[in-house]
Specification:
The structure is a single chain. The chain is an alpha+beta fold and 295 residues long. The protein contains nine helices and 16 strands. Strand 3 and strand 4 form a beta hairpin. Helix 1 crosses helix 9.
Amino acid sequence: MRFAVLAAADSWYFADLRRAAVDRHEIAAIPFRALGSSVSCSRAERGSEVSIDACGVDIGSFDALLVRTMPSGSLEQVVFRMDALARLEAAGVPVVNPARAIECAVDKYLTIARLAVAGLPVPRTITCQTVAQALQAFDDLGGDVVLKPLFGSEGRGITRLKDRALAERAFRLLVDLGSVLYLQEFIPHNGADIRVLIVGNKVLAMRRVNPFDWRTNISRGAVAEAVEPRDEWVELARSAADAVGASVAGVDLLPGRDGQMYVIEVNAVPGWKALAGAHRRDVAAMVLEHLQEQV
């Protein structure tokens, strides 16, 4: 089969997918910035056509499209990219993950709201736009909060605030930059969390341990340990992925010292390098098998 992958041609993940494809599938890298669309209408035939292309290649000619990256861009660029993915879906091309899932997962507020509505245990979270509201939220959340950018991953831009004066300075700076203030209560934990990777009907899990930082991201120095996922972890992770609408998802679960397992985030463009190494499993082959199933 022919699969298009929205990724940089020199990325580790694209190379891993090509390795796993061997001679069974054709894999082509498509950069997000190369996406374009052509719209035409024939009055004589009373028909219309909307095509999505990149670098002169009709993406609609592929059997499926895998979204493997989500680069930053202007509001116009991001909206157009999501619109293009939606048009491909409307044309019958399987897109993993769908545009709606991508849009939800990259927006921490929308994600946490959907998780809460689905009845999943999440940290108390307050999202606001003014310094006064943020300071009230700081107090309401116990004076120990985690400030996160609304968009972002891998722990970038995340700050723990325990001093009210420092918190106020951070809030003022972000408000001046036009940012939305997204605050969560800090959940006391033992320096480890659980990443559950959902790939269709398959599940893998790893424990991420960081003795040097309260953030447990691999990019922050955490070490991955393969673990057998408990049934309750799988249930939480699948419910979280369903709430976002993703069939491939990385769900972060945090075991609090209070005995509660919290759902922290859902990543609709999850990496698998550390997890594949910890489990010694061919995750790229799992992803390709899932794409084939979607076709």
